[in-house]
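Entry:
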Amino acid sequence: MYTLSFSYLAGKKALVSPCAALFGVQTRTKAFRHIELPKVGAVRLRYKIHFPEDGQYTIEQLRVTKLAGRDPLTGRVVHGKIGGGIKMKHLWVDIHRTAPKEGPPLVERVMSIQRDLTRNAFVALTISGDKARYRYATTSMKPGDLITTYGDIPRIPVRPKEGDAHPLGALPIGTKVCCIENLPGNGARFAIHAGVTATITRKISGRVCFTLPNKQEFAVPQECMATVGQVSNPEYSSIPIGSAQANRLLGNRPSSGLWHRKTGIHGRKLRNPKKLKVTSVEPKPKTVVGLTLPGLPKIMVRPPIRSLVPV
């Protein structure tokens, strides 16, 4: 029978038997090192995009390096079901639809609708003056169309036109929108995948509430930009993969094939509606708390701390 013991001086983990500890027999040691796994969604594990070193926007195709489920920092396999796939290039989509708040709006002409293998929605190449940019295409967008970006919020809601971008406060209730910002100037964060659209439900105290297809409701500032319409390629989710080889071309490795016990997540459940999420630019306030023992100084910590008692 063996027990675990730790050597704090050598920083090693040893397997020690009761007899060895009793008679002082030398034990075997094994060095160990703690490795922190990346947070879910914090690191892209499927591929790495090589953006220009100067940071300037370009419409050229960007080189893509496949990671095959490995952490780009440590090189260790974090996700075992990612790997393979066809070669691809990345098109840099500009997620910011900005226009001057005063004066004429920004008008762009759609030159072509293209397919980007690194995302499931189509992208549109637009030109305005001497600037060319990629935008997320909507369902009815086609080459030759003119799309307009407005920056003002009039007193009376505007008549929406698909493909145009407005602040959410300028659109009437019930409008279908996509490519929505979470904060003014942050770029599109909501409803950017194929076939996704959100519905404006209500306006309260300088904020606009909209509902996503998963019944999640968000409240963002009325200055956040949004595109009228639905993201292109709505039939993406209904296209079957067809074969195992086609799934490998998509960059997915097969599962282990072992039997796994099914949990309750596979059944039908009646869940409560999701709560309203509010985005804000104000930082979270810090709370002054003190220890329970008398005579100790107060310290600044981030709430909540269950072991401390607020003053």
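Confidence is low (pLDDT under 50) at residues 1-15, 300-311.
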